[in-house]
Design a protein that fits this description.
117 residues; four-stranded parallel sheet; 6 helices
């Protein structure tokens, strides 16, 4: 389940999701799963609980979003030591890694220049 700030929505849907799905991943994403008339936070929690992994698409907008912070804290709480690979930090735009991620020391993906070979 990718968690991202909507400012990155075009990149998520045009680049990330096709790559994940092309590799055989089953992807849960808000635009395809959330239902109108239901609370957003409740749906975020429900789908996050159903996901085997959470991919955090880190950007300054993501780090400034209360909803994204909620999802990040819940994801890290499921694997606080980053031992199970359930939380995958992906830096999309240059920004500092959050202290909760730095403390766990996971290898993160850097796609700040996803066109580089």
């Amino acid at each position: 389940m990718p968690v991202y700030a909507h400012a990155q929505g075009d990149w998520v849907f045009e680049r990330l999701l096709p790559a994940l799905r092309g590799g055989g991943a089953q992807v849960i994403v808000d635009r395809e799963r959330f239902a109108a008339g239901r609370a957003v936070v409740g749906q975020m929690d429900e789908w996050q609980d159903a996901a085997a992994k959470t991919l955090l698409v880190l950007t300054p907008e993501y780090l400034a979003s209360a909803c994204c912070q909620h999802e990040m804290r819940r994801a890290i709480a499921r694997d606080p030591d980053f031992r199970d690979g359930r939380v995958i930090p992906l830096r999309r735009v240059a920004c500092p890694l959050p202290p909760e991620i730095v403390a766990g020391g996971p290898l993160h993906i850097d796609l700040t220049d996803d066109g580089a070979s």
